Amino acid sequence: MSHDLRDGEIALPFDPAETADGPRVAFIGRIRSPWQPGAAPRNIRKAREAGCDGARVELAPAYAPGLTGLAVGQPIVLLYWMDRGRRDLILQRPGHADGPRGTFALRSPVRPNPVALATVRITALDAARGIVGIDAIDCYDSTPLIDLKPWIPTIDSPPQS
Amino acid sequence: MSHDLRDGEIALPFDPAETADGPRVAFIGRIRSPWQPGAAPRNIRKAREAGCDGARVELAPAYAPGLTGLAVGQPIVLLYWMDRGRRDLILQRPGHADGPRGTFALRSPVRPNPVALATVRITALDAARGIVGIDAIDCYDSTPLIDLKPWIPTIDSPPQS
Q: DSSP assignment, residue B159?
């Protein structure tokens, strides 16, 4: 993986991909999408506009019973591991930004723990086979899934300021 | 850790805490809260009602520059690792539920990858010291943080059905 820096970017003095000593994540399944590396929409809003026929979650068989209680039409949050990016940039300069910004002020997949979030709607459900159809997704085909939760408005909306 | 099962609960045939072979998470800091094990609110709505004086994020020093560009008043999403629960329940029966439900239909901290989400508002910011005051949080004091992102309405709200 390239460790080049663009102008104004700053890397951590260590690489979490090498030094992280927390627990290991379990890949519980994969996200299937129409997108291949180098040709994915910039975010889920763009993905929704582009159309995402066939977008779905495929759980590994042992995890399928965990879908019990979910229903078509329900909004859920997917957590997935963006496994293609570096983990050591702390100040970065995405193509669309006018200058370097902190990693935690960006939704970039380049971050110490590359966990992305997508809030989607269930369009189809085959709980026995561990398959969940979703209205859209912005990640590459076969991106590892680490969690799936119900989206709950009283929990997942910001408080009034 | 107890591996007892309540009536109707089902465990995976393996324990992700032991078998997970994905990448390791990096603990980038800690969440400071008024809550101690055994005495935490059930969710962030309840935490907000109870009041959360002093709730904040404390990043490890190397990660502090990652806050550049965030501002007081902004909504953010915290991702934290609920490190006190078992990871092998796939059908579970929380105290408030009338029967067993799939882990992915619940917000329970008991899940294969115990990553919790909280959408909060920044109430204070000391980027140089890596400290972010937040309006509320529902986890125990010193829970490990793994990520912090801006909350963006076009990304983090469910699509219209």
A: P
